């Protein structure tokens, strides 16, 4: 075990499965957007790893931009009120926008983000999330592309962090039970 892996309880989605699924999503997105160009909007920081790999499987012309957001309220739960820490550089009016997320939990953050983006009149606005925890959903948000549905456990790796660590793991793991602070994030 490398020191980066201390704290991993178990591997939930091995590296090879992540890679295969990312390629499948890329093929599906490339087919759906054939003849159009795409703007991938990544939500910092967790989505960076997924987005970089996904983009390299796309065969349509694409650009990227990023947003950084922070949720108000208790550390363990999304309040649904989101502060934009870094906004997009690009004007998305008339663009085909695909929001790329690492994980959707309650859906409150994404729901707020989608309202903000929709108001800017993109030609198309869809979401691609690597992971979703359906059990935790509090608000319906249409997610067009989903990598994996996972149970309600705190996951780390492939961009996902616990206290900013573990993002560099090439697989999705579950945080060791000894480290779970009774929080869900
Ligand atoms: P909501 O509840 O608004 O929150 O959908 C989504 C955000 O919550 C974080 N999150 C996690 N981060 N492991 C993480 O590292 C997890 O299991 C987890 N569940 C939720 C994440 O920041 C996501 O964007
Ligand atoms: Mg986090």
Question: What is the topology?
Answer:
Layout: E1 8-13, H1 15-32, E2 38-44, H2 47-55, E3 62-71, E4 82-86, E5 96-104, H3 108-118, E6 124-132, E7 145-149, E8 155-156, E9 172-175
Parallel strand pairs: 2-3, 2-5, 5-6, 6-7
Antiparallel strand pairs: 1-9, 3-4, 8-9
Coarse morphology = globular
Report mean pLDDT, rounded to a whole number. Answer: 92
The fraction of residues assigned to DSSP E strands is 25-35%
Residue ranges: pLDDT <50 for 5 or more in a row? none
Give the end-to-end Cα distance, rounded to a whole number of Å: 24 Å
Keywords: Cytoplasm, Glycosyltransferase, Magnesium, Metal-binding, Nucleotide-binding, Purine salvage, Transferase
Family: Belongs to the purine/pyrimidine phosphoribosyltransferase family.
Cofactor: Mg(2+)
Subcellular location: Cytoplasm
